[in-house]
Design brief:
about 375 residues, Rossmann fold, 2 domains, seven-stranded parallel sheet, 13 strands
């Protein structure tokens, strides 16, 4: 099957769609059943992190790039791909035109939760062959804009197994390396250290837990504008010694693997919630707020907990309860890990995507512009 993947935004810095493209491109190139071609912007983040094999350069800053859109169409018509994939909302129109004018099926990935322009929905999204929503929340937003459910397939992001999957004895070894005592419970925050991501909610839970007889240690994994404020609060409250602040790190998985509980308390909507899945993969018990899409990732009381936004007391109480019930604690963590294995490994996610492509490839229905 000949597949053309388009992510031609010249952005040199990584965003969600760029990381997603890199993951999928690098994984698809390993498959003998796929002949992959890609269109990227020269020097972009996607360009720098993918091979030069079957690569074409086009820069698309928006849908309104007439000259470069024509160049994209010429590339597609020469390649005659079976399927054209678009992975950036700013390139939907360009991707659609390239696909249809080369006789290919068109598949678009939808990552974000914001509303799309009605004209783009009418002229492009309602006419493509499939839209892959990376989350249940993204699917619901598409349906709210009039996209029929049958056109939407939910296929999530996958987690880098080489980095986040736990090896036998690795959690214990890393805890020892990081100076975590055997009787300490590690509660972590992972991501941008900012109010909107829930860092102050995390701190308030940590302050309450510090008053309990249980020995807690708190990891703040990441960097952000509110990092120093959290440090200052911990010093003022006399609990700074219980904290480990990593700052900016290229190895967040090292700290997450040594952790027991992950508080992913984002106060805003998340289009996917990668941090939650990374918590599942590293056998952490995950707590989230009842916001999109996080509340769809966690089955409350089965593989984690979904709490009302801002309910610090509830989270603190649940943490202490589950720590005392060790069998329940381990069962919840194992269910979270099982959720990861079933839904979010590279093998599981790619399998679903390849199945979608195969259904399109062998569908004999005539394409209509």
């Amino acid at each position: 099957m000949r597949l053309l993947w388009i992510n031609a935004n010249p952005n040199p810095n990584p965003g969600g769609t760029e990381l997603h493209s890199i993951d999928f491109i690098n994984a698809l190139e390993e498959l003998n059943s796929i002949e992959l071609f890609k269109v990227v912007a020269k020097g972009s983040f996607v360009d720098r992190h993918t091979s030069d094999r079957n690569k074409f350069y086009v820069s698309l800053r928006s849908e309104f790039s007439p000259a470069n859109t024509l160049k994209l169409i010429r590339i597609a018509r020469n390649l005659k791909p079976h399927v054209v994939v678009g992975n950036n909302g700013k390139e939907y129109l360009n991707t659609y035109m390239a696909g249809r004018l080369s006789g290919a099926y068109v598949v678009l990935f939808r990552h974000m939760l914001n509303r799309l322009p009605p004209l783009l929905v009418s002229l492009v999204l309602k006419r493509v062959d499939k839209i892959v929503a990376v989350s249940e929340a993204s699917k619901r937003r598409l349906m709210a804009q009039g996209i029929e459910e049958a056109k939407i397939e939910v296929i999530p992001n996958f987690v880098d197994e080489g980095r986040f999957s736990l090896k036998e004895g690795e959690k214990e070894a890393l805890r020892k390396l990081l100076g975590v005592a055997e009787d300490e419970v590690v509660v972590s925050f992972l991501g941008k250290v900012a109010e909107g991501k829930g860092i102050f909610d995390f701190y308030e839970v940590a302050k309450r837990l510090s008053k309990s007889p249980v020995k807690f240690k708190f990891f703040v994994i990441g960097y952000g504008r509110d990092l120093e404020k959290v440090r200052e609060r911990a010093i003022k409250d006399g609990i700074y010694g219980r904290f480990l602040f990593t700052g900016m790190t290229e190895e967040p998985e090292k700290y997450l693997k040594a952790s027991d509980i992950l508080l992913a308390l984002s106060r805003g909507e998340e289009s996917f919630g990668r941090v939650v899945v990374e918590g599942f993969a590293t056998k952490n018990l995950v707590f989230v707020y009842d916001v999109e899409n996080l509340k769809y990732l966690v089955e409350n009381g089965v593989n984690g907990f979904v709490c009302k936004m801002g309910n610090i007391e509830e989270i603190s109480r649940l943490v202490l309860e589950v720590i005392k019930e060790r069998n329940r604690f381990y069962k919840l963590r194992e269910e979270a890990y099982k959720t990861y294995l079933i839904n979010y490994t590279k093998e599981a996610v790619l399998g679903r995507f390849i199945k979608l492509l195969e259904v399109l490839h062998f569908d004999k229905t005539c394409l209509m512009f």
